[in-house]
Amino acid sequence: MKNTDIHVTQAKIYFLPVTMRVPLKFGPETVSSVVCLRTEVTVKDRNGRSATGWGETPLSVSWVWPSTLSVSERARRMEAFSIQLAEKLVASGLVGHPMEIGQDFIHGPLAETLTAANAAAGGPEMPYLGSLVAFSAFDIAVHDAYGNLLGRDIYETYNAEFMNRDLSAFLEPEDGSGISFAGRYPADYLVKEAPKVLPVWHLVGGVDALETSDLTGSEPKDEHPVLLADWIQRDGLKCLKIKLRGTDAAWDYERMLRVGRIGLENGVKWLSADFNCTVKDPAYVNEITDRLLADEPEIYARTLYVEQPFPYDLEANQIDVRSVSARKPLFLDESAHDWEFVRLGRRLGWSGVALKTCKTQTGALLSLCWAKAHGMPLMVQDLTNPMLAIIPHVRLAAHAGTIQGVECNAMQFYPDASVIEEKIHPGLYRRRGGVVDLSTLHGTGFGYRIEDIGRELPAAAV
């Protein structure tokens, strides 16, 4: 036990609806709005000192919960679940470092609350990933509060000085690897002098207009670009992530071709292909990559990695993917709920991991440590994070040591959502020169500078 151990004494939640400037396609669904869950938690240490912290994430139901249920019903259930989590977190009485509280809550009250909520609702069950996304806003807030309590940047606390347990209490190495987590802490796997500027990835959505011929007349008429070349030129982009269907090989190949050609003509250096869990057979991906290699070798060479083609329930869909990763690095995203799924993915032939803070800061750090220890490269991917949500996201990317920067696309799909935060952190909410700039983030916790931002919130939901 340490005097710096904390427990949560209060939790407030706010629901912040955001309307998209242009639609975004997630797998089979196209969405035009989202509700962001913002949390404020109060923590107290063993000496009676207290502090508050903040967390936020979009409740992106189309991404976390593919289902025949309506988007509105899934959103309603995720919001109701979030309210239950606020009550459960305060009642849990868990004590320790935020990593310890987060891990213990995920493997105890969170699982129990999800089981009970699904039983009460009947019908299609909210998946584990949905529960993690809802809890992530609380988990991030606890980390932020802890840093605020100590007057420290939260990334200075992931070590033996503040944690009661080393990584061997959280992680198990692969059998026969010779790796040991005894005496190791997250700080041992993090970039200590994190960069203040990161290359930024632009998301080319499945319904985005690429060229003038794609325009329908319904596009927004504002200060922001619509066509891909205009985005590249205005933001100085060098990295494009391409959303594909995974159910129409001809369309997917043509999309890679069109985006790749526009990108290369405008100075883009790197591409990635994201199939969003819709592919069932590795041959589907292999045929597309092989055709690119044969017919469009420059586009093939510039494709840095392939992201999550296969169903995200990795346990139920244990597909041998080594033929795909032999062609291009293959990164887990939706499947990488926590380090145990990363271990299973590695056994099936996946190359690396795309981390997301929306699966909890605690879980992302543990997956990072396991992956780095086992030689798996990392990326940090966006859940279209606006407002506060982008800050822990880019901080994770800076400390993770990714293969190439970070994805940030909220400025594409709802740039006006973050105009208040942008006044304090302009380099985060306006991509320029192909980068995001973190230099305005400073102070304690995640460095939000909440008081400087001064956003007025609605009444707390609970």
TrEMBL record:
Keyword Metal-binding: yes
SUPFAM superfamilies reported for this sequence: Enolase C-terminal domain-like, Enolase N-terminal domain-like
Xref: InterPro entries: DgoD-like, Enolase-like_C_sf, Enolase-like_N, Enolase_C-like
Entry's transmembrane regions: none
Keyword list, A-Z: Metal-binding
Enolase C-terminal domain span: 229-448
One Pfam family this sequence matches: MR_MLE_C
Entry GO MF terms: metal ion binding
Name used for this protein in its record: L-alanine-DL-glutamate epimerase
